[in-house]
Amino acid sequence: MIWEAWPADGTLMGELQMAQAERVKGGRGGAPGSTGRPRSEEAHQAILDATLDLLVEVGFSSLTVEGVAQRAGVGKATIYRRWPSKLPLVVEAFGRLPGFEEVDSGRLETDLKETLKTYLANFNATSLGAVFPSLAGERAHNPELSKLLEPVARGRREPFVRIFERARERGEISEDVDIDLAADLVVGPISVMLFFRGGTLSPKMVGPIVDLALSGILKKG
Amino acid sequence: MIWEAWPADGTLMGELQMAQAERVKGGRGGAPGSTGRPRSEEAHQAILDATLDLLVEVGFSSLTVEGVAQRAGVGKATIYRRWPSKLPLVVEAFGRLPGFEEVDSGRLETDLKETLKTYLANFNATSLGAVFPSLAGERAHNPELSKLLEPVARGRREPFVRIFERARERGEISEDVDIDLAADLVVGPISVMLFFRGGTLSPKMVGPIVDLALSGILKKG
Amino acid sequence: MIWEAWPADGTLMGELQMAQAERVKGGRGGAPGSTGRPRSEEAHQAILDATLDLLVEVGFSSLTVEGVAQRAGVGKATIYRRWPSKLPLVVEAFGRLPGFEEVDSGRLETDLKETLKTYLANFNATSLGAVFPSLAGERAHNPELSKLLEPVARGRREPFVRIFERARERGEISEDVDIDLAADLVVGPISVMLFFRGGTLSPKMVGPIVDLALSGILKKG
Amino acid sequence: MIWEAWPADGTLMGELQMAQAERVKGGRGGAPGSTGRPRSEEAHQAILDATLDLLVEVGFSSLTVEGVAQRAGVGKATIYRRWPSKLPLVVEAFGRLPGFEEVDSGRLETDLKETLKTYLANFNATSLGAVFPSLAGERAHNPELSKLLEPVARGRREPFVRIFERARERGEISEDVDIDLAADLVVGPISVMLFFRGGTLSPKMVGPIVDLALSGILKKG
DNA sequence: TCGTAAGCGAGACGGTACGTCGAGTCTTGCT
DNA sequence: AGCAAGACTCGACGTACCGTCTCGCTTACGA
């Protein structure tokens, strides 16, 4: 879904992670002058894995850095050396979760339905549904997190924008439809479900949502 | 907006609070046998006000009961005597925020636009925009909060359902439109904006949203 | 012995403790306007006992506040509420150890020997021998500790000064003997043993020490 | 002074250091089979100097190996390659401090006074006064340190023993004076001053101390 | 002259303790 | 009984060192 989609090449998170690393230690990979023992990629993975595990098991607000360290078999300092607090850690762990695959069938309705269905199945299989609201809820009071989250949300939005652009080129939708708004409309009911209703996000919801969004609520004629 | 509206009589929260109070001290209102000094209504208000202030200032996850007590000029025990933990306290404080006024103009489009516009103006004037995401983010991993939040969300949803029911009776919309889904569709883009995009919720957004939701994204013809 | 003796009424430590308490929370016992739950005397005792136990078991430099808290069945905060660091805590715990009983037999030699013997027996039975050097070693780099330790040392010195003053009044020693120096002379070999030689402080050492100090090293004639 | 004097040839520390080196890498000097880059003597010196500096500045218990490495411009591993822990390092650094020069004037009083005066002047000029108590305080609970410190203390004691032996040969003191005890008596008041009173060790103190120790506290007659 | 073996500065590693803070509970004296 | 105040236990926070372990490099020796 828009706000959680991931670019196919997975580089967005790479950037995010780099931005993070730079803030903490002044850039690693790039500068060849780096000295000292290099950071363990193994530990990095173990931390991210443990974070995701615990996120699913106990939720964001009960997740403790101490717990992550213990589960990852890692010292706390090793975590704080990489992430300044649990928020960016969780953002990065979250970023590792799979995005969705953009579908290009040549027909708007099919593109939307397939893309959303695939993603929703995925969404239920992982912890995306539990993690994202936790992060989003902090945005209003945490500008730093907001900045971290922005590229993620933008990245997940883009595929939808592209789907609508193709539909416009094919003449399926009018030239003056606001594509951003259209994307929000299709994705909106899912957002409502996720944040306000706390219900399950079944792939079965996708059909009616897309149909209603495309044809409108009012009676035709 | 739907999920944040409040029943006109404001009794829902009253019930919630009673349920709460009963769990804490075994029901007081009815029983005439209660003795000792009565609870201070003044303190109650001060606590709720302080909670709301802090919720806006620092967000849910940084809100501390200690801070609330201090700002309210109240002992911590006085808070815990009324609410078993900070969660129900925050929910109740949140419930005090204004809902929206249902409009009945006899025309679906007008009803939706006016209702949403009024609410959005309100939303920006108060702290709803900052507080709600904080709470919503906790839902996924906090069943207790989820349960507390449910009646609030349902209450705020109902006005929209009524608007659509009236429209159906008037024949403005087809008999087989899923009213719940329709409500989610209208409200969806606002939810997306609030949680994923972090943008401002201007009342000017309402017109295009309602128009697109009512007439659909696809080209007519 | 001088530097570890304790006034019979045990009030010196009381003062020390008060000075401590005042620095931390602005004086407790005295002001009747104090509010809130009073500090638990039980916890205070448990902490001091645990400290002394651990001091004996693991020594000063391996003593951890965490360990004290655990052994005392107390939260760390309860310790830090009373003592700003482990040093004053150890000083106070140390102060609880028994001092020595001043003897007044009417004869200098007997007074000195009895006083020292009693104390040395005591010294070996408790952990004085292990604790005091630890504290003394920190003095040079810790002015605060130095201040804390000063009244203790002075208190333990006084009994010796009194013994010599009585001897001077009786004419046992010359008017112009420097009493402070005499006290240091008698006590000196014990200090050397304790700090430099690391040997055992047996009460049997007392006789020869006092004899030599009183009559001098040089041949008489 | 006795317990801090140093053998004239300064070899004691050499032995200690060798013993150390052997424990660490299995003996180097002799064996011709050693290969690879030799250890840097420069680094060795820098480490010892930094250790001594820090010992004076912050005391033993606040001294960190990390700090030593940084100040010496050396990696931590280079320190641990030579000393198995910070204790022997500190002991060796301490051993570098100057001892005192034994005086042989042919008269006990003069020998004692001159030896002590010289040393005390020295003591005040260097950091002995700050370092030694730090180490001594650790002895009681640290057998390893105690063992390391023993030869140092013995070495510094010997000159005094020799002074008294010469005096006995000359008939200045009785045959049955316990020389060890006599040494402790002379040195005792300085020890007391250093550890218990925290006062300054002025060379002016030496005269009265030696006089009183030699002639005794009691009135002659 | 070149490889190999050890040393080097730098700094990350898993741990442990630090001193602080907040949650939710309990205990004063007073209303 | 209620109240404000504030101490209570517990447990996580983020930091600092411990002693160990790589890194990429430098320095001597022996083949």
Describe the structure.
With 221 residues, chain A is an all-alpha fold. Chain A folds into two domains: 12-94, Tetracycline Repressor, domain 2; 98-217, Tetracycline Repressor, domain 2 (Orthogonal Bundle), CATH 1.10.357. Chain A contains ten helices and no strands. The longest helix of chain A is centred in the last third of the chain and has 27 residues, at 143-169. Mean pLDDT of chain A is 82; it is low at 1-32. Chains in contact: A-B, C-D. Chain B binds a DNA duplex (31 and 31 nucleotides) through α3 and α4.
What's the short version?
4 copies of one chain form a homotetramer. Chain A has 221 residues and is mainly alpha-helical. Chain A has helices at residues 11-25, 41-58, 65-72, 76-82, 86-96, 108-125, 128-139, 143-169, 179-197, 206-215.
What series of H and E elements makes up the topology of chain A? Answer: HHHHHHHHHH
Strand portion of chain A: under 5%
Report low-confidence residues of chain A grouped into runs of 5 or more.
Answer: 1-32
Q: How many DSSP H or I helices of chain A?
A: 10
Biggest chain contact: A-B, 59 and 58 residues
What would you say the CATH architecture of the largest domain in chain A is?
Orthogonal Bundle
Number of domains of chain A: 2
Number of strands of chain A: 0
Class of the largest domain in chain A in CATH? Answer: Mainly Alpha
Give the helix/strand class of chain A.
mainly alpha
Helix content of chain A: 55-70%
Shape, per Cα inertia axes of chain A:
elongated
Rg of chain A (CA only): 20 Å
CATH fold name of the largest domain in chain A: Tetracycline Repressor, domain 2
Give the overall pLDDT of chain A as a whole number. 82
Determine the N-to-C terminus distance of chain A: 32 Å
Largest sheet of chain A: none
